[in-house]
Amino acid sequence: MSGAGTPDFFYREAQRLGYVARSAFKLLQMQKQYKLIKPSSSVLDLGCAPGAWLQVACQSLGPLKNGGIVVGIDLKKAKAPSLHCDSRVQTICADVMNLPKDQLRALSSQHKGFSVILSDMCPPVSGITIKDAALSAELGMQALDLAVGGAAVAQSNENIQSKGQLDSSSSGQDDNGVLLPGGNLVIKLLESEDVQEISQICKPLFRKASWLRPKATRSSSREIYLICQGLR
Predict the structure, then answer these.
(1) Which residue among the candidates 65, 79, 188, 215 is catalytic per the annotation?
(2) pTM
């Protein structure tokens, strides 16, 4: 693996520790730095395949007696891995952007919403930098709208006029997001000018918004994560 001393290390560590993918170490680093997932948290994992983040999220809940729930959704059919996951983890094969928000809330532990939303969604990579970044930003905006609903739409209309990053149909009858007040949101993006605009949208909506490029990210990758803490 060219220029890949670090990626090789994380690949080997994932195999040694029973994680289904090296991406587990990205969420492990976020959890260590930001304490996003707490015992009894309700976690929604968008783009959950192959399941490494499901494993880390379930581990972060602590023992089964602590409660909590992890719901993974992906376009691909994905099972909760047998290692590091327990009965609190469930997976759904669906396009999350086409699921009504009330149906998503109904999947949470108290049917009120999720305390943590993790979006590791990424568009199919074409190799065309500008195109890939634009598609990634669009997915990021959709994840934000899913999390905070009308607040994100209003803020985006103010800060990103006429860029078309949000489909107007996304703010339908159910205009509230599925992230609970005080909740945390993680969005994966590809570095571009658009990511700074998304960050500016998030800052007024959350207590804190930070950028992180995890150590487990491949050197050739342009991915970066926006960590939003404490929904206002």
Answers:
(1) 188
(2) 0.89
